[in-house]
# Entry
Amino acid sequence: MSETSKYQNQFKINQVGNLNTGDTKIEGDQIGIQHNYALEQKIKQALSELKPILEKIQHQHPTTNEQQVTDIIEVEFREIERTQPRKWQEILQQLISLKRWFNGSKAAASETIKHYFNDSVQAKAFIAFLEGFSADV
# Structure
């Protein structure tokens, strides 16, 4: 007879938040990996604001080379800077924020390590250290 698991496939959510899924039992305030996607939403919002500008430029200048496109985009952004200073400040803050660049780099490094060293305890420890060390940054 095969040995039965201590935690059969039961799914119980109690008042304190107990959850039993198969052989893993999570109770109370035990937390695994937490993903915070607020930054990702802000980036998506910023990109969605830039997308119409770039589409307008592409529609107005369909046959341009790379250098011309760079020049046109620069002129358009200067126009936004001149006519819509508040919007320009928002764009600038989103693009130049060191915290955003750091968080993006940290997330990319973490995902790369997870991809290539998925079974490595040392890699998981490094990721946990990196996330904990930079939590308030």
